[in-house]
Amino acid sequence: MTVDEAKLKQLAGVVTNLSAEDSDTRRWAVYDLESYPPKLTVDHLVAGIQDEHRAVREAASEVLESVPTELSLPQLTPLLGSSQIEVRNIVATLIAKFGDAAVDYLVEALVHENEDVRKFSADILGLAESDQAVESLAKALYDSVENVGVSAAEALGKIKSPQALPCLTKAFEDRDYLKRECAEAIGLVGQAEGAHFLMDRLLATQDLLIQFALVDALGNAGDAKVLDFLEVNFEALPDQLHVPAVMSMLRIANRVDIRLLMRPGTPVDTLVMAAMEADEEFQQLFIEQIDEELPTKVLARLVHAHGQLNSRVLVALIKATTPHAELRQFTLEMVEHKDDWVSYTAIEHLVDFELAAVKRVLKRVLAGDRNLPQLAAMKVVHQLGLPEGKDWIAPFLESVDEDLRAMAEQVLEG
Predict the structure, then answer these.
(1) Which secondary structure element, helix H or strand E, spans residue 169, and what is its range?
(2) CA–CA separation, 227 vs 239, rounded Å?
(3) Which residues of 282-314 are buried (b: 16+ CB within 10 A; e: fewer)?
(4) What is the DSSP letter of 414?
């Protein structure tokens, strides 16, 4: 028996194990296939990725990553239409890993007879972000199945190619069910031409859901001119769009380095309301706009609304208002805030305050029972060099809290 014949006989044994009842036997058989030429194993690996047991599917996917794509992809792309969701998902994840190598096969799959194959191919092409796919995805916008068109629009937005703008604006006009997805994609492409299109359509449409999509898209595509447009037209927008509009204004302002809170046309009260409702990313954008250079009048409006602001914004506001003598009462009030981080920040900033008021506050905090504010108070006592403060701190030498005890030792030794 030649070496090749022996190898083939061994492979036959591995293939037999792929049909074993025990899933572990099947899984190890999949890994054994790595030892053989891919052209002899690819069919078995594709069968393995459809196995009923998750561990076997994952093993097959892992091994298929090293198989030449020209061997695997012709068999994998049709599985995007599998009736088994778990098979479809693992195949989609695997194909996405192939990146540019999969683009030609996915483009071809955009005209597959199975609508799920077309839809998921469009989804993956968006992840690949390849300009090669723009023309085919543009055609897919007009697929007879709406979900395929939606995926094509979303993919074009992720690719962000200026080449996609003409087809996206046309599909916005031609396909009512695609208006929101096309608006989002136009915003992501981010060209001045697209921004003008979005502004024109915002003024022309009365559909609230479409208006919402257009306003959100302007936050991605917009520049200083779009910011001016949103400010000028703010009051004319439906009330339901005020918060989304200021969110878009803030995204634009941070992207093009504009101090939004310094602009007279900025609806500050609505911006505060948006900060209350928004996610962490938006709140961070808002925080980046808050600093001591803001006019006292603007800071005072934010202070007035402080009860509506979360802890992260309050910390930024304390830092911004402390240099403004007329707003320092806010910092004193924040010393008692229920959030230890806010309280700690307020206490840290007492070093610039009138000494008599600071002493009363520090003594009260150190007599309390909140560890983090007490640490901040000890630091301030040390920074100000208050002789009487040592008497307030001495009891902490017996504290069961290691941080408090260490800080007390540091202050008293200093």
Answers:
(1) helix 165-174
(2) 18
(3) bbebbbebbeeebeeebbbbbbebbeebeebbb
(4) -
Q: How far apart are CA 186 and CA 198, in angstroms?
A: 8
Using alpha carbons only, give the angle 308, 299, 377 rounded to the nearest 5 degrees. 75
According to the 3-state scheme, what is the secondary structure of 354-375? Answer: CHHHHHHHHHHHHCCCCHHHHH
pTM: 0.81
Q: Name the phi and psi angles at 373, rounded to 5.
A: -60, -35
Could you give the count of Cα atoms lying within 13 Å of 242 in the half-sphere of its Cβ?
14
For residues 317 and 331, give the distance between their C-alpha atoms in angstroms, rounded to a whole number.
9
Residue 256 DSSP one-character state: T
Distance CA 382, CA 348 (A): 11
pLDDT interval class at 5 (50, 70, 90) = low
pLDDT in tens, 69-102: 999 999 999 999 999 999 999 999 999 999 999 9
Residue with tokens 């092409």: 125
Residue 321 CB-half CA count within 13 A: 26
Give the residue among 380, 385, 369 at the shortest CA–CA distance from 346: 380
The interaxial angle of helices 3-17 and 23-32, nearest 10 deg, is 150
Q: Is residue 82 helix, strand or coil?
A: coil
Kindly indicate the confidence band of residue 66, based on its pLDDT and cuts at 50, 70 and 90.
very high
The pLDDT confidence band at residue 222, using thresholds 50, 70 and 90, is confident
Nearest to 296 by CA among 307, 285, 304, 284: 304
Q: What share of the chain is helix, strand, coil (3-state, %, to 5)?
A: 75, 0, 25
Specify the residue for token string 């989304």.
244
For residues 196 and 215, what is the distance between their CA atoms, to the nearest angstrom? 12
Q: Report the alpha-carbon distance of residue 304 to residue 316 in Å, rounded.
A: 15
Q: In the numeric block, which tokens belong to residue 63?
A: 């091994």
Which among 148, 157, 65 has a CA at the least distance from the CA of 102?
65
Cα separation of the two ends of the chain: 87
For 335, the 3-state DSSP assignment is coil
Q: How far apart are CA 40 and CA 38, in angstroms?
A: 5
Collapsing DSSP to helix, strand or coil, 318 comes out as helix
